[in-house]
Amino acid sequence: MTASTSPRRVIMAPGGPEVSRLAYGCWRILDDPEGAGASRVLDKILACLDSGITTFDHADIYGGYRCEEAFGAALRERPGLRQRIEIVTKCGIMLVNPARPENRIKHYDCSRRHIVASVERSLRNLATDHIDVLLLHRPSPLLDPDEVAEAARLLQEQGKLRHLGVSNFSPAQLDALASRLATPVVTNQVELHPLRLDAFLDGTLDQCVTRRIAPMAWSPMAGGRLLHDQGPAATRVRAALAELGRKHGAELDQLAYAWLLRHPARIVPVLGTNRIDRIQAAAKALDTALDPQDWFAVWTASTGAEVP
Ligand SMILES: NC(=O)c1ccc[n+]([C@@H]2O[C@H](COP(=O)([O-])OP(=O)(O)OC[C@H]3O[C@@H](n4cnc5c(N)ncnc54)[C@H](OP(=O)(O)O)[C@@H]3O)[C@@H](O)[C@H]2O)c1
């Protein structure tokens, strides 16, 4: 495996950026019951930094194209913070939204023109001069790897972009893109949690291990379903996590993060909570070492069947 500088940091890929083992996702920042003004966003950024979380995940579309700007307003208040964090953002999904009247239908655009324009807009919104990692948000049947390579080259030459990654790509889609790039694909951000095991089984994580890519796990709490869903799988997983909680003296969310962290691909869970106490508590996952039987107890609870 690629060496990391500390157990709390990871180098995403050979030649890739160093990021924190836990990242903070900004998708829900406008839904925070405490507000989404600059001071509240700043408080969350500072809580992350105090907990060793330096990597922030965005997308152009979050909050109807408004989350990046809310984060940028916080950075404008404390410009010195920019050099202490890594910014991941995404492009490629085109929403039907008043902010984009030209979009007649929801679609994907991975053209050179759109990628460059989207990054330039993200830079303005986020009040920064560079993006650490740009992810293509979704694979598109119309994605032309040569065009993406050209966009990345242009942006990298101009110093506006450091690294390129993908999100929700199959291994074959990632390979096709990587075959044309001058720099490595540094991550694949996929949905991954005890109620969504696909990436463990469909070759996604195997490819990450092969390419020494650290994947990012979106919705590590299944968007809250892990805590609240009354279905049989979620109920079984909660019972398994509660059992582990008695053994490890940890909370359910900490154990769910620890379960992802235990995988050899060096998964980076992307936290979605708006609560500062939950951000602070998450760091304990890094000190919670699950043994293989702990890990398979959660797997078995999810599938409802003993492994073969
Ligand atoms: N690449 C993609 O296609 C994609 C798609 C979706 C998301 N993402 C990224 O992944 C990030 C995380 O996704 P997510 O927000 O769905 O993450 P999540 O952590 O799975 O879900 C967050 C939700 O779960 C609740 N929650 C979290 N911990 C809890 C706890 N201990 N007890 C009770 N409720 C809890 C939160 O409520 P509270 O705020 O009250 O804690 C919030 O409503 C996003 O911000 C975004 O950056 C990427």
Q: Which CATH architecture of the domain at 192-308 would you pick?
A: Alpha-Beta Barrel
CATH topology of the domain at 192-308: TIM Barrel
Which regions have little confidence, pLDDT < 50, spanning 5+ residues? 1-5
Q: Give a quick account of the main beta sheet: strands, pairing sense, barrel closure.
A: 8 strands, parallel, barrel
Report, as a whole number of angstroms, the end-to-end distance: 28 Å
Could you characterize the architecture of this molecule?
The chain is an alpha/beta fold. The chain is built from 13 helices and twelve strands. Helix 10 (232-248) runs antiparallel to helix 13. The two termini are 28 Å apart. The model is unreliable at 1-5 (pLDDT under 50). It binds NADP nicotinamide-adenine-dinucleotide phosphate (NAP).
Characteristics:
globular; alpha/beta; two-stranded antiparallel sheet; 16% strand; TIM Barrel; 8-stranded parallel beta barrel; 41% helix; 308 residues; binds NADP nicotinamide-adenine-dinucleotide phosphate; disordered N terminus
Structure, briefly:
By secondary structure, the chain is an alpha/beta fold.
Itemize the secondary structure elements and their pairings.
Layout: E1 9-11, E2 18-20, E3 23-25, H1 38-50, E4 55-57, H2 62-65, H3 67-77, E5 86-91, E6 93-94, E7 107-108, H4 112-125, E8 131-136, H5 145-157, E9 161-167, H6 171-178, E10 185-191, H7 198-201, H8 204-211, E11 216-218, H9 225-228, H10 232-248, H11 252-261, E12 268-271, H12 276-282, H13 292-303
Parallel strand pairs: 3-4, 3-12, 4-5, 5-8, 8-9, 9-10, 10-11, 11-12
Antiparallel strand pairs: 1-2, 6-7
Helix pairs in contact: 1-3, 4-5, 10-13
The chain binds NADP nicotinamide-adenine-dinucleotide phosphate.
NADP nicotinamide-adenine-dinucleotide phosphate binds at residues 25-28, 57, 167-168, 189, 218-224, 227, 253, 270-275, 278.
